[in-house]
Amino acid sequence: MNDGPVSTFQFLGLTFSTANIVSASVVFVLVVAIVFFASRHLAMKPSKGQNFLEWLIDFTNGILKGSIPAKEIGGFGLYGFTLFIFLLLSNELGLFINLALPNGATIVRSPTSDPITTLTFSLMTLMLAQFAGISKLGYKTHFRNYLKPFKVWIVISIFEEFTNFLTLGLRIFGVIFSGEMLLGIIWNLAASHGIATMIVAVPLEMAWQGFSAFLGAIQAFVFVTLSSVYISQKLEVEE
Amino acid sequence: MLSHLVVGAGLYFGDSIFYVVCFLLLMWIVKVLAWKPVTKMMQDRADKISNDIDSAENSRNEAADLVQKRQTALANSRSEAQTIVNDAKTNGQQQREQIVTQAQADAQTLKQNAQKDIEQERQDALVNARNDVADLSIEIASKIIQRELKADDQKALIDSYIEGLGKQHES
Which of B29, B30, B44, B50 to mutate to test the interface with A (most CBs of A within 10 A)? Predict the structure, then answer.
C-alpha cells in the first residue's frame, strides 16, 4: 500500500524512496538466502534443496525455450531465472509483510507495487533485447528490422517498442498494486465496526490474499514469458 | 494516494538505479552460488545417464555375442559327440566282423584237421584189418584145405580179393 506520506531521502542529488530501497533489500536478502541454502551439498543424486533449485531452473528454462531457440538461450537462462525468482518474491512480499513507519509511511511492501520498479525491469528487458539483437545480427541488420515490411513502418516499430516497455512494466504493477490496495481496504473495513465486520472481513481478506499470491506467481511467470518473447523477436531477421 | 504515481512528481529515479545495481549484483551472486554449480551438475547427470545408456547397450550386445558363441560351441560339441559315437559304432562293427571271420576261419581249419585225422584213422584201421584178415584167412585156409601154403602167397591172394572188394564198394 502506498497510502499516506511517502518517506524519501536524497543521495548524490537523486531522490530515493525508502520503502522501495528497504523492500528491495529484503527481497535481495531472501533470494540470496534461498539460493544459498538450496545449493548446499550438491550431488549427482539431488537432495531436497537441489531438487527445488533444479526444478526452478528447469521451469524458467522451459519458459525461455518456449520462444528462444535452444542453442541461443545461453546467458538468458540466468537472466530469466533471477528475474523470475526476484519478481515472484517481490510480488508475494507485500501480501505477508506490510510495515509502516509511525508517521504512516510504508516501509516494507511489494517492490513491484511501485511502477518505478516494474518499469525498471521492463526497460532492462528491452535494453537486453536490443543488445542481444545487435550482438547477434549486427547493427545494420538489427536496425533494418525496424524498416520492415516497408519503410514507413518505422513509426509503428518505434511506437511498439515504447508500448512494449509500458505494458510489460505496468501490467505487473497494476495487478500487484491493486491486490495490495484491496487488502488494505478490506482490512480497514474489518477494523471499522469492531467484531461484527471482523467476522465478515477476515475470511474475505484471507481469500483475497490467496488469490493475490496466485496472481503474483502468474504475473512473475507472464513477465518472464513476455521478456523471452521480446528478446526472441530481436534475435531473428524479419521478412 | 496516487499522487506519487504522477510522472515527474514522484518517480524516484534513484530507485531505478538502485534496482538495476541490485539486480545485476543478485544475478552475479545467483550465478556464483547456484546457477553454475547446479547447471553443471545437471549437465553431468545428463552426460552420466547417456553414458549409462550407452554402456548398457554395449553390455547387452556383449551378452548377445556370448550367447551366440555359447550356442555355436554347444552345436559344435554336439556334432563332435555324434562323430565320436559314429566312429565307435563303425569300429565296433569292423571288430565284430573281424572276430567272426577269424572264428569262421579257425572253425574251418579245425574241421579240416579233424577230417584229416579221421581219414588217417580210417586208413590205419583198414590196414590193420587187412593184415588181421590176411592172417586169419591163412590160418583158416591151412586148417580147412590142409594144404601147405606159403603165407606170403596166401597174403597176395587175399590182398587181391580185398582189392577187388574195395573197388566194388567204392564204385
Answer: B30
Longest CA pairwise span in chain A (Å): 68
Taking the CA of residue B51 and the nearest CA in chain A, the distance in Å comes to: 14
B5: nearest CA in chain A? A115
Report if residue A54 sits inside a domain. Answer: yes
| Subunit contact A116:B44, Cβ cutoff 8 A | no
Which residue positions in chain A have pLDDT lower than 50?
A: 1-2
Min Cα–Cα distance to chain B from A2, Å: 7
**Nearest C-alpha in B relative to A120:** B16
Q: Cα A191 vs. chain centroid, distance in angstroms?
A: 31
Which pLDDT score is estimated for B12? Answer: 65
Q: Is residue A3 part of a domain?
A: no
For residue range A195-227, what is the model confidence (pLDDT) as tens digits? 777 777 788 888 888 888 888 889 889 988 988
Please report the pLDDT score of residue B146 as a whole number.
Answer: 64
Q: Please count the other Cβ atoms lying within 10 Å of the Cβ belonging to residue A130.
A: 16
- Those residues of chain B that have pLDDT short of 50 are 1, 3, 6-9
Q: Which of A73, A116, A124 is most worth mutating to test chain B (most B CB atoms within 10 A of its CB)?
A: A116
Q: Look at strands A14-17 and A99-100 and give their pairing.
A: unpaired
For residue A17, give its domain range: 8-235
Residue B31 is nearest to which of A78, A114, A120, comparing CB atoms?
A78
CA separation for the pair B122, B128 (Å, rounded) = 10
Cβ of B19 within 8 Å of Cβ of A24? The answer is yes
| Interface predicted TM-score (ipTM) of this complex, two decimals | 0.78
If we measure between CA atoms, which residue out of B122, B121, B120, B133 comes closest to residue B160?
A: B133
Name the β-bridge partners of A11: A14
Boundaries of every domain in chain B = 8-170
The structural domain count of chain A equals 1
In a domain, A93, yes or no: yes
Region class of A41: left (phi > 0), else alpha (psi between -120 and 50), else beta:
left
Within a domain: A161: yes
